[in-house]
Amino acid sequence: MLSRVADNLFWLGRYAERAENTARLVDVTLRLATLPAERGHDGEGGVWHSAIVSAGCEDSYFAVHSDVTPEPAIHHLVFDRENPSSIVACIDFARRNGRAVRTALTQATWEALNTLWLEFDRRAVQAQANDDLAELLDWVQYSAAAVRGATAGTMLRSDAYWFLQLGHFMERGDNTARILDVKYHVLLPDHAPVGSAVDYFQWSALLRALSAARTYAYVYREPVRPRNVAELVILRPEMPRSLAASLSQVDRYLMAIASDYDTGKNPALDLARARYARIRDLGVEDVFAYGMHEFLTNFIEENVEQSNAIAETYLR
């Protein structure tokens, strides 16, 4: 496979996943913004500022706006084509990458992706007219899941599928770490102790953002506790959006790619294997002892290093 084709497939996976995760982020922020001020911390401005930070859009947002208010924040994260991490931009980039490698995709995968792209503008206009952003966000998540389902159900398990899935899980781990870090450490005020009402609502919102509320209830069968939530979304490999699950899949697909492409020295695979081995040996108390913010920041930085190693090994 040409490195250009592999690059398009890798970024198709990343942008499709980023669109879905941004929809999840905006949806949970809408929920937090409805909480009373004493529970919503700094009010709507505070929660929307955290969403901007979590999406990695601070620079692009403050290049245009001087402060964070709900309406421009929503526009920047959902509808702004000048913001490369907005939902509409991610969908557009995913479709462009897919169109560039159309013959590497199955008809079902392409149609699911193209439908997402074709329908978004119409549904966005409808959502704005009806003041029903939540419906649009639900539809984006559903449609992104349809792209994943078509990919999993119809694509041959070969290098095209592996590069697409590699991008998908690289992006998923990155977004989970960002949501976990910012939603807790930015929004939780200094005076609110762990276990307070504010703490409970923040962790509950986090679980909803990661589609893990029912999973939490099934696994732990007790009220929401920070230690359990952290363990679930960081260390539990059976939780699909956990950091451990994402790292295991990155390791898996890099191993599959390496079996077809003998590149000799493989820093991308070496790094992936080392990262997965480390997280498998951790307990949740190790994470808290290290510092959750520091742990997540390190994870995000290593993800950038991992992405660069993949690009250097296979995509250039």
What would you note in describing this structure?
By secondary structure, the protein is mainly alpha-helical. The protein has one domain (6-315). Helix content is 75%, strand content 0%. The protein has 15 helices and no strands. The chain has helices spanning 3-33, 43-54, 58-62, 70-79, 87-100, 107-129, 133-154, 159-185, 197-209, 213-220, 226-235, 243-260, 267-280, 284-290, 292-315. α1 runs antiparallel to α5 (87-100), α8 runs antiparallel to α12 and α12 packs antiparallel against α13 (267-280). The radius of gyration is 19 Å and the shape is globular. Mean pLDDT is 89; it is low at 189-195.
Q: State the helicity in percent bands.
A: over 70%
Count of extended strands: 0
Main sheet summary:
none
Question: How many separate domains make up the residues?
Answer: 1
Overall outline: globular
Structural class: mainly alpha
Mean pLDDT: 89
Gyration radius, in Å? 19 Å
What is the end-to-end distance? 12 Å
Outline the low-pLDDT stretches.
Answer: 189-195
| Number of separate helices | 15
Listing every helix as H and every strand as E from the N terminus to the C terminus, the arrangement reads HHHHHHHHHHHHHHH
Beta-strand residue percentage: under 5%
